[in-house]
Specification:
5-stranded mixed beta sheet, Glycolipid-bd_prot_put, 14 strands, Transcriptional regulator
Length: about 190
């Protein structure tokens, strides 16, 4: 089995505590640059009592490897990086970013959606064991990307995946829908009705 082919889809998540929202539209695209999937979203929330508003766009290959992303805050900070889809990153001006070699997926703070990227890309099965990944992580407090170790394990194919942080004692089971998009992120986010 495999996830169904992606159709244009819009989903939302709300934090389980406090105010906020992630609104995502994801769809297949035709693009000369090789991208086949585009995710565009807005995240509104708070961290440590500091509110933020962020818009993002992520372009991926048909196999869900990230090719580029841009993130912009309502206060004017912006970050945009590009990849070859194999873990080699560069800035908008073409500067190589060797500190992120091997990071194929990205993780945006406050986004349940970005947990779907490695799940869809790998489509792991229980017999595959745990995938130990290096993510390009963008925290919204500093807006400075960092390398972050994350582990993903399939519990039930196309239904339930375990996420574990490499640098701290944190594990959560993530149910996904037929598109492989995270439904709920227990203790933090819940899918909201449109």
């Amino acid at each position: 089995m495999a996830f169904r082919p992606l159709l244009p889809t819009t989903v939302r998540w709300r934090p389980m505590e406090g105010d906020g929202l992630e609104h995502l539209t994801i769809a297949p695209i035709d693009n000369a640059g090789g991208a086949a999937i585009r995710a565009a979203g807005i995240i509104v929330g708070a961290r440590g009592g500091t509110p933020y508003g962020v818009s993002y766009r992520i372009d991926c290959t048909a196999g869900w490897a990230v090719l580029s992303f841009s993130v912009e805050t309502t206060d004017g900070r912006r970050l945009a990086l590009m990849s070859d889809g194999k873990g080699h990153w560069r800035s908008e001006d073409g500067t190589s970013l060797p500190q992120f070699v091997g990071c194929i997926d990205i993780d945006l703070y406050g986004s349940p959606f970005t947990n779907s990227l490695p799940i869809r890309r790998l489509e792991p099965k229980p017999e595959d064991g745990t995938a130990r990944l290096s993510m390009l992580y963008i925290p919204f407090d500093t807006f400075e990307p960092v390398r972050d170790g994350q582990h993903y394990t399939c519990i039930v194919p196309e239904k339930l995946y375990r996420y574990a942080a490499e640098d701290r004692d944190f594990t959560v089971d993530l149910p996904v829908d037929d598109d492989g998009l995270v439904i709920d992120y227990p203790i933090y986010f819940k899918r909201a009705a449109l």
